[in-house]
Amino acid sequence: MSQGEAAGCGAAKPQDQGWAWMVLLAAVVLQGLTLGFPCCIGIFFTDLQHEFQASNSQTSWFPSIMVAVLHGGGPLCSILVKRFGCRFVVMLGGLLSGLGMVSSSFCKSISQLYLTAGLITGLGSCFSFQAGVTVLGYYFVRWRTLANAVASTGVSLGFTLWPLLSQYLLDEMGWRNTFLIFGGILLNCCVCGAIMRPIQLASGSLPQSAKPKEEPGSRAEEAQLSNGASPHHPMLQQHTRRTKCFQMLQKYLAFDIFCQNKGYQIYTIGVTWMMMGFALPHVYIVPYAIHNGVEERKAALLISIIGFINIFIRPLTGLLSGHRVFTGRRIYLFSLAALLCGLSNFICIISAEFSVLILYCAILSIAMSGIGALIFQVLMDVVEMDRFSSALGLFTILESITHLIGPPLTGLLVDITSDFHYVFYNSSFFLISAALFMGLSFCALEKKNKLREASKACLDNPSRYQYSETSMEPKAECQSPPVVEYITSI
């Protein structure tokens, strides 16, 4: 761990109190400004189509790139956090986000929007958001589950306020001036980063990962040098480059965890597949409502309803999941939330009436609350905290790929068929299949681990599970516990 990381993300002394709660407040605002922001892009969908004469698929690339970069910039964010600390990275992200939206207000084509609002703003949001999530893991230990749930309410606030503000500004001054104002608003990420002040670690409090470790391949290099090989030898230089490349991948992308940790592997694959359909309702619910005769103001209100309900449900979900009953079982709550999210999409298929869409948004919001409150907590459960930043990098870059291609592919399908129902068919398919995959896989993994522990315990003390040879009573055999009872009691 570098000095920058230790200063910016070090374990606060004392934790879970004092300035940690100010950091939590800053994280709430950060998540509202970053994760909550892409939800309002659907309000500009129709105006951007008319302005640039673009199709549904072409227009949907703009929010897709933004969200994909927001999640996929994790490895780069991890490198910057380890080098400069969380505070610097959050403030850098705020500058990039503001610059991207200000530049977007002057764009002359939809492709320019891909670069400014999509890439630059998305990358800035990534830096601010992921550095903010990382710092929470060090400031909170006892109340970490609650802190993550409370921080995720910022997304709910963003979902509530961004659409209302967007629709008002769009009606009053058009999309270009609205984007210009958005650039100024996103600069407030710098204020949040300033609150995440560096903390001086107590002596001897550095995590174990901060201790110098022998780098892989160093012994091989020493052996070659001891045999007389020159450090400038081409073969040795090539070997050194491969070793450093492997170390970088292991340090910032956690491929070693992905290969060795089955829980992390299942969870990453499941969430990556789920994200193919998770973002579709947020991108297309407003165009879908307008397409079916709902007024633009009412259509924008649908996203605000999702965010408003989230404000109250996410903390409750965090408190519930933090109970000791759910320790080690939060993945099942997460899978249940994803399943409910997928099933709720069938409501839109039944009817596009405004009252029905309100019901859909209410149920979708409850399911999203579970996903939002648990997604990072489950990740913290399956990997060690000292590798969380690296695990988060690989986790987010994989899900960003499906975030990127999901909406445009569905938009292309809508362009071909002129039927918005395929948006919700696709979303349901990916969400339901991912939920079943994660739930059933973790259940099988848990049973496998119990069997392994049971076999190990039996080998360590075999006489404990053998019948007594000296007892001649008929009921002696019945007193020996059945195999099933033995396995489930571990």
What's the short story on this structure?
This protein is mainly alpha-helical and 490 residues long. The chain folds into 2 domains: 16-199, MFS general substrate transporter like domains (Growth Hormone, Chain: A, Up-down Bundle); 254-455, MFS general substrate transporter like domains (Growth Hormone, Chain: A), CATH 1.20.1250.
Average the pLDDT over all residues and give the rounded result: 79
Series of secondary-structure elements, N-terminal to C-terminal: HHHHHHHHHHHHHHHHHHHHHH
Intertermini distance:
37 Å
Largest sheet: none
Radius of gyration: 26 Å
Instruction: Please indicate the percent range of residues in DSSP E strands (runs of 2 or more).
Output: under 5%
CATH class of the largest domain: Mainly Alpha
Structural class of the secondary elements? mainly alpha
Q: Can you tell me the residue ranges where pLDDT is under 50 for at least 5 consecutive residues? A: 1-12, 201-226, 464-490
* The CATH architecture of the largest domain: Up-down Bundle
Percent helix among the residues?
over 70%
| Helical run tally | 22
- Give the oligomeric state: single chain
Whole-number tally of structural domains: 2
Report the CATH superfamily of the largest domain. MFS general substrate transporter like domains
Shape: globular
**Number of DSSP-assigned strands:** 0
| CATH topology heading of the largest domain | Growth Hormone, Chain: A
